[in-house]
């Protein structure tokens, strides 16, 4: 017997084998649309003001946000970073709500005649004086205590209007049953769905889609090559993007919006945008 073979092996472990595995999250690159909205020429920020009936309770707002889907969404808890090649990526981080919830009480410098004008002045000032910092996820919630108004500021790189409104709706609950999520009635489309089930309709729809796509691409190319904006009295020169802003409120009746939506199916988003 070899002398080294006698006695127990000092490297032998008794009992179950335990392994330590370190899991590292991989940075996710931005989509082409997200990189476009982050360009200095655009840097598009979506701003949404919501008026409230009752006074704002800051503690209740913070508690609701901590327990909502917003704080768990990857885009809303990630930093926008750049690698050594200058490409943008999303990196997960811990969200500090104190950096995202800004509470504004009545200021001595307010000169607005009413709450609506005060909110418009505040939004106009935000568009120039307070860009979203890259040191935190690109969203903020401003609480105007005197005006009972909440202002959401979200960078367009985080999502488009439909996805952001869907996420906002998922954080809401029904007034008659707080345990149930809020829903939006899509309307009765049975009159149009029956005629779209046939094979001929699907083929014809595909042909029209391809034909109009070719026309739109051709028209867009011609406009890009030969057309440009005309000089008018409202067009400024270099540096006009730094001028002070002035906002005005346009009001619409929901009954009118519903009538238009019924008359023009699937066009309510375009109408709201215009």
Automatic annotation (TrEMBL):
- Which pathway does UniProt place it in? Lipid metabolism; Glycerolipid metabolism; triacylglycerol biosynthesis
Q: Which UniProt keywords apply?
A: Acyltransferase, Transferase
Gene Ontology terms, MF aspect: diacylglycerol O-acyltransferase activity
Q: Which InterPro entries does the annotation name? A: O-acyltransferase_WSD1-like (IPR045034), O-acyltransferase_WSD1_N (IPR004255)
Q: What is its EC number?
A: 2.3.1.20
Q: Start and end of every O-acyltransferase WSD1-like N-terminal domain?
A: 84-269
Record's keyword annotation contains Transferase: yes
Q: Which Pfam families match?
A: WS_DGAT_cat (PF03007)
- The kind of enzyme this is, by top-level EC class, is transferase
**Organism name:** Ilex paraguariensis
Protein name, as recorded: diacylglycerol O-acyltransferase
Which superkingdom does the taxonomy of this entry point to? Eukaryota
Q: Which reaction does it catalyse?
A: an acyl-CoA + a 1,2-diacyl-sn-glycerol = a triacyl-sn-glycerol + CoA
Q: Does the keyword Transferase apply?
A: yes
């Amino acid at each position: 017997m070899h002398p080294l073979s006698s006695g127990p092996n000092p490297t032998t472990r008794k009992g179950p084998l335990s392994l330590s595995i370190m899991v590292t999250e991989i940075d996710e690159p931005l989509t082409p649309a997200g990189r476009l909205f982050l360009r200095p020429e655009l840097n598009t920020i979506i701003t949404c003001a919501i008026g409230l009936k009752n006074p704002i309770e800051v503690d209740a707002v913070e508690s609701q946000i901590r327990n909502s889907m917003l704080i768990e969404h990857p885009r809303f808890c990630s930093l926008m970073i750049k690698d050594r090649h200058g490409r943008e990526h999303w990196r997960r981080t811990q969200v500090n709500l104190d950096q995202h919830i800004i509470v504004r009480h009545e200021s001595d410098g307010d000169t607005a005649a009413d709450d609506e004008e005060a909110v418009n002045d505040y939004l106009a000032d935000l568009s120039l004086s307070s860009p979203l910092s890259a040191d935190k996820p690109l969203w903020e919630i401003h609480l105007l205590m005197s005006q009972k108004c909440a202002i959401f500021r979200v960078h367009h790189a985080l999502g488009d209007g439909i996805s952001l409104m869907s996420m906002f709706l998922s954080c809401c609950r029904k007034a008659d049953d707080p345990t149930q999520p809020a829903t939006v009635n899509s309307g009765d489309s049975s009159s149009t769905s029956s005629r779209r089930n046939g094979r001929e309709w699907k083929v014809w729809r595909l042909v029209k889609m391809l034909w109009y796509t070719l026309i739109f691409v051709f028209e867009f190319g011609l406009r890009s090559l030969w057309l440009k904006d005309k000089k008018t009295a409202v067009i400024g020169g270099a540096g006009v993007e730094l001028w002070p802003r002035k906002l005005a409120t346009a009001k619409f009746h929901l009954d009118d919006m519903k009538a238009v939506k019924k008359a023009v199916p699937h066009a309510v988003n375009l109408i709201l945008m215009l």
